Amino acid sequence: MKKLVGLSTSWLKFALGVSIVFVLCSASASPVQANAKYAGIVIDAKTGKTLYRNHADSARYPASLTKMMTLYLVFDALESGKISKRTKIPVSRHAARQVPSKLGLRPGQTITVEQVILALVTKSANDAATAIGEFLGGSEAGFARMMTQKARQLGMNSTTFRNANGLPDRRQKTTARDMARLGLALRDHHPRYYSYFTTRSFKYRGRRFGNHNNLLGRVKGVDGIKTGYTRASGFNLVSSVEARGRSIVSVVMGGRTSRSRDAQMRKLISRYLPKASRGPDRFRIDRGGESALVAFALPKTMIPVPAQNPARADDSRAVLVAAATDDMAVGQQVGSSDAVDPINTASTHKGEWVIQVGSLPSEAAAREVLSRAARKAPKMLADASALVEPFRKDGNVYYRARYASFDSKSEAWRTCKRLARKDIDCYAVIQ
C-alpha cells in the first residue's frame, strides 16, 4: 500500500511539474508569434536599411493608415498651389454618411482644408477624409485611383486603395513595408506640413478631439504618424522617431488591442533605434516614376564597376557586364551574362536577397525593364518590390533594375529560374 501511495505521489508530482512547464511556456510565448494578423518592420530612415521585419511583405488591411496617403495628396495639392489651407471643402451626403470615427459633418456644410488635416491626424475622421477625397478626385473612386497611382510612384507596389478613409474594403490591401515607405515619403517630401502629425488635440465647433496616437509625448522622439483599426485589420500604428542623432520609421499591424500594439511599438523603438545610423542622411524615396523606388544611397567609396560601357543609351537591353572582384556579392546568375551585372552596391535592403533583371544607362530604361518583367511574370513578382538603384562609373550614373523582398536565397534563386523560362535574364544576389 505504501508503494502504491508513493507511486501515486510521484506521478502527481510529475504531472504537476509538466503542467507548470506548459503554463510557463504558454505564458512566455510571444503574442506576436501567436497573432496571424501581425506584421511589422523597422527602417533606418538615414540609410534605408531594414533593421527588423516580420511578415513585412504580407498583404494586410491598412484601415486608417489609408489616411496617410490621403494626407500626402492633400500636401501635394497645397504645395502645388491647387488649394490653400483656407479652401472650403463641401460635404456631400455620401461623406456625411460615413461611419465613425467622424466629426459629424452635415450635407451641404463646408470645412476648410486645414480643419480636414487636423481632423485626420487626430480624430481620424472618416467623413472629413471622404469629403477631401471627393473634392480632389471628383469622386471618392477617382481619388482612390489617384492614391493608388501615387503609391506606385513611391514604390508601394503591393498597395491598392479603394477609398480615402480606410473603412473596410476587401480589395484595399497594403504591406507593412509599403506603409513604412509612405511614412518616410511624408517626412521627406512634405517637411513643411509634416509637423501636423505632432498635433495632440484639435478643437472643432466647440468640441475637442484628442490624438489617437498614444505614444506622442510618452515615448521620446516619437513625432507621429498614424493609427488605424478595423475588425479585419486589427490595431495598426506607424511611428516616426528621431532621437540622439538617429531616425527610424516603425510599423506595427494587426495588434489584438491598442495597448498590445503600443507595447510592441515601444519594444521595437527601444530595441532598434540604438541600432540605427548616426551618419548623414543618404536615403531618399523618388517622388516620380511609374513604379520604382529609387534609393539614392551611393557609398562614399567607389564600388566595383563593369569593365565596359553600354552599347547605346536608348537600348533598354544595354547592360554593364561585371568583372569578377573580391567585393562581388555571392549569388547565382540565370540567363545571359549580357543582361545583368552581378555587382554588390548600396541597396535599400542590405542583408536581404534581391534579383536583378538588368543594368541600364538611364532610370527610364531601368523602369521599363522592371515593367516588362512584371508584365511577363505578374504572379511571380506580385509580392516583390521594384527597385532602381543608381551607381557611378567614370563620372556617369547608371541604374540597376532589381526586385527585392525575398525571404531567402532559395526563394530568390527559384524565382530567377522561373523568370528564365519566360526569357527574363536574372541574377540572384544578397546585399
From TrEMBL:
Residues 347-431 form the SPOR domain. GO terms for biological process: cell wall organization; peptidoglycan biosynthetic process; proteolysis; regulation of cell shape. InterPro entries: Beta-lactam/transpept-like (IPR012338), Peptidase_S11 (IPR018044), Peptidase_S11_N (IPR001967), SPOR-like_dom (IPR007730), SPOR-like_sf (IPR036680). The keyword Signal applies. Residues 1-34 form the signal peptide. One of its GO terms (molecular function) is serine-type D-Ala-D-Ala carboxypeptidase activity. The keyword Cell wall biogenesis/degradation applies. Keywords: Carboxypeptidase, Cell shape, Cell wall biogenesis/degradation, Hydrolase, Peptidoglycan synthesis, Protease, Signal. The active site is at S64, K67, S124. Pfam families: Peptidase_S11, SPOR. It comes from the Bacteria. Substrate binds at K226. Belongs to the peptidase S11 family. This is D-alanyl-D-alanine carboxypeptidase.
